[in-house]
Automatic annotation (TrEMBL):
PANTHER family: DTDP-6-DEOXY-D-GLUCOSE-3,5 EPIMERASE, THYMIDINE DIPHOSPHO-4-KETO-RHAMNOSE 3,5-EPIMERASE. It comes from Dyella flava. The keyword Transport does not apply. It catalyses: dTDP-4-dehydro-6-deoxy-alpha-D-glucose = dTDP-4-dehydro-beta-L-rhamnose. Belongs to the dTDP-4-dehydrorhamnose 3,5-epimerase family. This is dTDP-4-dehydrorhamnose 3,5-epimerase. The keyword Transcription does not apply.
Length: 185
């Protein structure tokens, strides 16, 4: 397993060791001991799968209070995945990191608690999986506009298909401080 650091401390790309031959392939999608050795000691309590068509953008989503860390990957297709630091007081507040996740590259993306998350689908469809460190809490559910100019996310699509929730999401500057996570060193 290879850990690739991003520009955001704690947000990492994980490349599993893939064993393949003419019959197909095998890889460990999660191994607690290896993740702990790599500095990721999360406990996962909920696992989700979504399927979206080309041009769909989901995000930027987060929960506060009761934040979720997410370990995400793609089983079919390809997506561009983004994490945004929204922790008040963080030296990287408002900065983002993005990665291509595909069924072929088998990469995983670790997004710790305190970050907003979103992705857009670049293939005809994508089956996306994520393991979460906290159960979904509708009262804590929140979002930020995907195209917030202050974030400057370089999405590889324009005019995405959005949910009503994502269409109405506020800019980061318009989110009250008590609805944002707090940075702890």
């Amino acid at each position: 397993m290879k850990i690739i650091q991003t520009t955001l401390p704690g947000v990492v790309v994980i490349e599993p060791q893939v064993f393949g031959d003419a019959r197909g392939f095998f890889y460990e999608s999660y191994n607690q001991a290896k993740y702990v050795a790599a500095g990721i000691s999360a406990t996962f309590v909920q696992s989700n799968v979504s399927r979206s068509s080309k041009g769909v953008l989901r995000g930027l989503h987060y929960q506060w209070p009761n934040p979720q860390g997410k370990l995400v990957s793609v089983l079919e297709g390809e997506v561009y995945d983004v994490a945004v630091d929204i922790r008040r007081g963080s030296p990287t507040f408002g900065q983002w990191a993005g990665v291509m996740l595909t069924a072929d590259n088998h990469r995983h993306f670790w997004i710790p608690e305190g970050f907003a998350h979103g992705f857009c689908v670049l293939s005809d469809f994508a089956t996306f999986t994520y393991q979460c460190t906290a159960l979904y809490d509708a009262k804590a559910d929140a979002s930020i506009r995907w195209d917030d100019a202050s974030l400057g996310i370089d999405w590889p699509i324009s005019g995405p298909q959005l949910s009503e929730k994502d269409l109405k999401a506020p800019l980061l500057a318009d989110v009250s401080a008590d609805r944002l996570p707090v940075f702890t060193a």
